[in-house]
Amino acid sequence: MIEDKNQQRTSLSALGEFGLIGHLTRDIETSLPSTLKGIGDDGAVLDFKDKKVVVSTDLLIEGVHFDLAYMPLKHLGYKAVVVNVSDICAMNATPTQITVSIAVSNRFPVEALDELYDGIKHAAKVYGVDIVGGDTTSSQKGMILSITAIGEAEAEDITYRAGATSTDLLIVTGDVGAAYMGLQVLEREKQVFQVNPNNQPDLDPYNYLIERQLKPEARKDIKAILKALELQPTSMIDVSDGLSSEIIHLCKNSGLGASLYEEKIPVDPQLINVCEEFNIDITTVALNGGEDYELLFTIKQADYDKIKGNPNFTVIGHMTEESAGINLVTRANTQIPLKARGWNALSEGE
Amino acid sequence: MIEDKNQQRTSLSALGEFGLIGHLTRDIETSLPSTLKGIGDDGAVLDFKDKKVVVSTDLLIEGVHFDLAYMPLKHLGYKAVVVNVSDICAMNATPTQITVSIAVSNRFPVEALDELYDGIKHAAKVYGVDIVGGDTTSSQKGMILSITAIGEAEAEDITYRAGATSTDLLIVTGDVGAAYMGLQVLEREKQVFQVNPNNQPDLDPYNYLIERQLKPEARKDIKAILKALELQPTSMIDVSDGLSSEIIHLCKNSGLGASLYEEKIPVDPQLINVCEEFNIDITTVALNGGEDYELLFTIKQADYDKIKGNPNFTVIGHMTEESAGINLVTRANTQIPLKARGWNALSEGE
Fold it and tell me: Which residue ranges form the domains of chain A, and what is each CATH number?
């Protein structure tokens, strides 16, 4: 396990609860004008003036959402922030603050939490959010992370899942499926490692996929790009559970159907190679993979010229009347109803 | 275990993740003008206009923070909300929204989560807060609850831990120590039950203590009472870890010392009786018990007449210069330095 690699091990009980909180948050400073008071009181105090406030929260559980056998703690901290920041971006809002709650069993030394916090602080810096509060306690088993992200937006910018109309174009940023295949590669390497711990894997052919899994990024940049294009999306969601599942969310919330064109789905060349190596269907991975943290949104057809040829965006289909259903149009030009396979955490655990 | 009493048991996997979230949140409505959008999108959207926003978060872990052997799930849900609402009240702000994240192992049927949510919804109603988001997932072991509370306040009303001056009076609402002794009674009954499951305990002599433990209340009422008295506290905190620990927090944040008078500490007559029965020192319990969720605050001496004789408040001491230290003045008129024993979750767990 990662945390056993530490040379120095300071037990959590040596610091105590208040000591640990003080230690982990000792160098956390706030920088945004909207943060009036950060860590250190019963609550943080924020000031958004006349802007609207967007709030989202996620719970990450060891053994369910992450495996410390191949997820370095620093990356875990980074990713936990990204996952939440992504939700704020998916409202077309700007992330501003996070709170970070952590529960750990005594098997983690203080140095392990330092690594985790390094990742959290690094992500906070990269995304320009202030860490304004949280809770630190013990767990009976493993590590639990709960992050709440807060953001701000002008009322007119906020984009909901509902709001698309039946002729809107369906657009996704970046590419999809890579994070899922990165996980498959890591799972395979973990098994190889268990059989032969001295094996030195060559992960170069998988670097993009692994980075997408271990160090995903939220598309905080998209809001400014859309603003510069004078483009207001009609609906928006982030791709956390898989493209298929997210399209269905947009359709259900907007009371519409959709046609998604298989040939249009953007995938990285590395994904194609590795899917062949693993003998897995690329479209299945691209549709159901999840954890890409790209943004999926709709725009009016009349706005098409604003994004035409823009490398940030791919038009992957269009919305339809609800009665037409939610379909994948394959390369062979057949229609297959989309299913929300997504990622079902509730079938796991003891 | 409580959750085994259910006649009907629907497994979580039968509903699936999205199904479960939909089921648990199906009748949640929002009522505050500051809630523009609640559950059902990537984030909630809130509007506080020119008010400041207060945010606090807590993580509650089965086996660390609660024991389902004597904590009914409905009470647990209620208490989890109260704990967070109390933090908002401790900033002299008005609680407005909460997010609720839950992780459970498969040993819990859907009906158990329904009970938990009933308690959460009831508390939300009692405290007038909207449930605007959250996360529902599986855990590897036991139940995990993470609640974030949001509140609003005019800038001039917000009261921090820092802000007291050396001549301020130290005041506590209600009484302290009862929740801790309620826990001792429940622990004893649990042991009796394990020896003899047919034993019918008479808990009447302990009803106040047990209620303080199982169904504590946050002092949302205090802000309005202070407002009506035209009284602005100079510093404030809620009593979650124990009176002693909280006094030390106020002192450290304000750069002061304090004198606490043993004879002034408000305790319920039932606490006195039960401490005698358990042969435990009342003052020790009152100082270190925790989980009372009363408010501890300081006011200027000149404001004393505003609270004199008010049954909501007890003057328990006064602040001093930092060099005088933080002391308990006993009934025998000796000074003993206060220690933050509080409650140290990090010495527990595997």
Answer: 2-153 (3.30.1330.10), 169-342 (3.90.650.10)
